[in-house]
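Dear colleagues,

For the upcoming journal club I promised to circulate an example of a predicted protein-ligand complex. I picked one with zinc ion because it came up in last month's discussion. The inputs are reproduced below in full, followed by the predicted structure.
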Amino acid sequence: MADTWDLFVLEYARSHQQPWVDLISGMYEDGKVDLPFSFMLAQQGDRNVLIDTGFMQGEGSSGFSEKFGVPNWVSPVRMLEEVGVSADAVTDIVITHAHFDHMGSVGEFPNANLIIQKSELLTWYEAIALPKRFGYLTAIIDPDNLKTALEASIEHRVTLVDGDKDNVLPGLHVRLGSGHTVGQQFVIVETGRGRLVVSGDCVYSRMQITGRDNDGVYIPLNNATGCVWDQLKTIDKINTEIGGDQERLIVLHDIDRWPGLPLVKEVEGFKIVKAG
Ligand SMILES: [Zn+2]
């Protein structure tokens, strides 16, 4: 099939004992989870495309991520090297949204074109300029990532997408999915096993789509800067895109760590799986 991609999930970090209710609305009785963090690699011909980048820690990093105490981490750059992709060889990065755990290592890929919603990047420039009393909005935005994006803009390496767009790269489509952030996008990738949807942080759990006890009532997030109305419309947009088939949805923070997808490699306990 023309314009299909090989698509991989690369896990690179895991939090420890995060309360579910901090993530998803109403989950007061559901305890705590070790939440996985991941990004994706899509390959087609000479193109190595990332969907999100993960974040850096330690030497050479901004130190931003350390504030959040994510105890288990392997460099996303190393995870890519484990599948034979050097940072220099990354051609494009589709950024679902600008939270540090999705955009935090964007500075590690000097040749990549960044593809992000115009409303995502510009609202964060606006929000970060607000007085400190608005700090809740930008608590998980690393200012260094915004600086990196501006530098990339000056180098003409940024594509600002305005809403839904097919074929931002051949066989790779983006959809505005406001709610978790203003300009959050989710990504549709044409693969050998059909169209797959990468959630971004539109959902943390499939249950947000199927509803509690499969009652079919969508469940909003508890860590969003956008409104519940937008979040539920976004969940509906994803549900429509997958036609109710959960096998076609890749959740980046999948607490079950992508069951059913073939394992390519395990690196220090972190999985690389083939999604399509
Ligand atoms: Zn997020």
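Two points we might discuss: The chain has one domain: 6-274. Residues 98 and 255 are 21 Å apart (CA to CA).

See you all on Thursday,
B. R.
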